[in-house]
Every structure is written in C-alpha cells, then in structure tokens.
Write a structure and sequence with these properties.
about 300 residues, eight-stranded parallel β-sheet, 13 helices, 8 strands, binds 3-hydroxy-3-methylglutaryl-coenzyme A, binds magnesium ion
C-alpha cells in the first residue's frame, strides 16, 4: 500500500456552500466574503461559493448573487455554485459565473427530501440545465449524494449510483463527485465503491465528497487516493453538513486533508499555513469552535506542497 502515490491532487473547497448552508444563524455577506478571501489567500484553486437554490429551502444562501458579485473573478481560481434547475441556471448566468454543479441522490427518499423530486425527474431536469449551460460555455460538475448510505433508507446499492453517474457524464458533466453525505462510510466500503466505479468510469471523472460525521473521512480519502482518485472535496475546519440529511455535520476538513497529503509528499498547490489561518477565520465567522484538527494543532510537516 501507498507505494505509488501521485505527485499532485486537486482539492475542491466547499465550505462557503456546504459549510454555511446548514447554519441557522444568518451570516453577513461581509463575513462570507472574509471567509472566501482567506480561502483564496490559501491558494485553493476551486471554490464552491454558494447555491442558486430556493431561498425558502436554504435561507442562509439567499444572498447568492450578492456574494458572487462581491468576489472578483480570478484566472487562478475556478468559482462554482450549486444549481438544481433552469431557474438556478438563469441566476448563475446573470452573475457571469463560469461553473455550476448539479446534484441529486442515489436514494429516492433523500432526493425527494432534498429537491422535491424523484431521481428520474431530477435527471430529466438536468437535461434542461446541463446542455444549455455547456452552450453558454460553462463547466458543469455533478454530485451524487448518499452513495455510502442514506439517513432514511439505510443501505444504498452503489450500482444505482453508478448508473446515475453514467447518465450525468453522458449529459456532459466534466466530473461526478460521490458523496458520503452522512459520513457512514468505512475504508473497505470505499474500496468496493471505487473499485466498482473504476471498472466503468475513468477515475479522473470522479471525485470523493466525504463527510467526517463518524471520523472516517480521512481514512476513506486515503483509500480513494491509493486507488487512483485525484480529486477530493473538503471544507475548511470541517465546517458543514446537509440540511436534509440529519446527522450530516462535518465535512472532511481541508487542512487535515492537505496536512496529510503534504506530509506524504503529495502536492495540492495549497499554502498550508494560510489554510490554517483560514480555519481560524471560519471559526470567527461562525462564532464557535469547529472540528478540523490541524487548524487547532498546527501543521507538523511543511516541507512539501
Ligand atoms: P420546489 O418547491 O419543488 O420548486 O423546489 P418548484 O420548481 O416547484 O418552484 C417553487 C418555487 O421555488 C417557485 O417560486 C420557484 O420560482 C422557486 P414561487 O412561484 O412559489 O414564488 N424556485 C427557485 N427560486 C430560486 N432559485 C431556484 C429556484 N427553483 C425554484 N433555483 C428546489 C425545488 C430544487 C428548488 C428546492 O427543493 C431546493 O431549492 N432545494 C435545495 C436543496 C439544497 O440546496 N440542499 C443542500 C445541497 S445538497 C447537499 O448538501 C449534498 C452535497 O453536499 C453532496 C453530499 O454531501 O453528498 C451536494
Ligand atoms: Mg456535502
């Protein structure tokens, strides 16, 4: 194990979106902007800023347009936002954003609770989102949630997630991020899921979106890395969760992932010291201690990166 580690992996930062969407207390636009600026200063190259979803469903992200307009476009950072339907696409287009992400679940009940649609209906709606977005010159990413387990249905057949992934790639999504939405995965399960997918889908088309609800996110990421996954979603200081997934608190903390990777000589392009500072900004913005470990303990290995 770990004999052929890659030189570099790509981190997709989700804290301004997945991190904040769950917060009950309103967070001011300036505070969100301060968090995004800290993430940019840490040299994160892909940042999901917000969601163009219904403000009634996710009030915390009702300022999506304002936040995107407050962040100056940069050639060294790809900014993106969640987009569930044609209304969302129109909102994204109006801001000039160059990348969106569509999302659905591998389990019916979670998909209905999260988007008020069946899986089949979500896929048909994406037929009205992805091709027009591509025509506008946008890049489109996709998420498949609850791949490791569903808070309502329990076990989920990963073959269902694979079938959905194929359809998303056929639609023109450049990458599908597989979500352990409620953090129930273990390394053996991750090995089985990645192995099933890698037989059918090029690994560069896949990312892992791991939640650390039960402390296994880093172990699952390591299995993915070992098996050839090169794209990982993470959230500064472990901020986050899903409002329609009870118990989904805590994304994989970006600084914990980057610290582990740099320690093993795997580059990410991220400045770990600045990332640790961003973790402190996140705590300040949220107003409480956050679960990420390395922003509290400090980095130990800093020679790679
Ligand atoms: P719906 O109520 O079925 O929508 O919601 P509708 O099409 O029937 O429209 C109802 C109203 O919503 C209308 O307004 C629409 O205009 C409006 P009204 O006429 O009543 O005034 N509306 C919108 N407004 C703004 N932006 C839009 C939009 N669409 C409709 N885009 C919908 C369907 C999908 C919109 C709703 O269910 C929704 O917004 N859900 C959001 C769910 C969400 O954001 N969940 C969290 C993100 S997913 C996640 O966290 C998992 C992930 O991290 C991966 C992982 O962890 O595994 C990605
Ligand atoms: Mg998530």
């Amino acid at each position: 194990m770990l004999e052929e580690l890659p030189d570099r992996v790509s981190i997709y930062e989700v804290s301004p979106r997945d991190g904040l969407q769950n917060e009950a207390k309103p967070i001011a636009l300036e505070a969100k902007k301060r968090l995004v600026d800290a993430l940019i200063a840490a040299k994160l190259e892909r940042i999901e800023l917000t969601s163009f979803v219904s403000p009634r469903w996710i009030p915390q992200l009702a300022d999506a347009e304002d936040l995107i307009r407050a962040v100056t476009p940069r050639s060294d950072v790809a900014f993106s936002a969640l987009c569930p339907n044609a209304t969302g696409l129109e909102r994204a287009r109006a801001t000039g954003l160059r990348e969106i992400a569509v999302f659905l679940s591998a389990s019916e009940t979670h998909n209905r609770k999260n988007t008020n649609k069946s899986i089949a209906r979500s896929l048909s709606v994406f037929g009205e989102v992805v091709p027009p977005a591509l025509e506008l010159g946008m890049r489109v990413r996709a998420y498949v949630s609850t791949v490791w387990g569903c808070p309502y249905e329990g076990e989920v057949d990963p073959r269902r997630a694979l079938e959905i992934t194929r359809q998303l790639l056929d639609l023109g999504c450049y990458q599908v991020s597989l979500g352990d939405t409620i953090g129930v995965g273990n390394p053996l399960q991750t090995q089985r899921i990645v192995s099933l997918f890698s037989a059918e889908v090029p690994l560069e088309k896949l990312a892992l979106h791991l939640h650390d609800t039960r402390g296994t996110a880093l172990a699952n990421a390591l299995v993915g890395l070992e098996m050839g996954v090169r794209d990982f979603d993470a959230s500064i200081a472990g901020l986050g969760g899903c409002p329609y997934a009870p118990g989904a608190a805590g994304n994989l903390a970006t600084e914990d992932l980057v610290n582990m990777l740099h320690g093993m000589g795997v580059r990410t392009g991220v400045d770990l010291d600045k990332l640790i500072e961003a973790g402190k900004v996140a705590e300040d913005v949220i107003g409480r201690k956050l679960p990420g470990k390395v922003h509290q303990a400090g980095a130990f290995v800093r020679r790679h990166g």
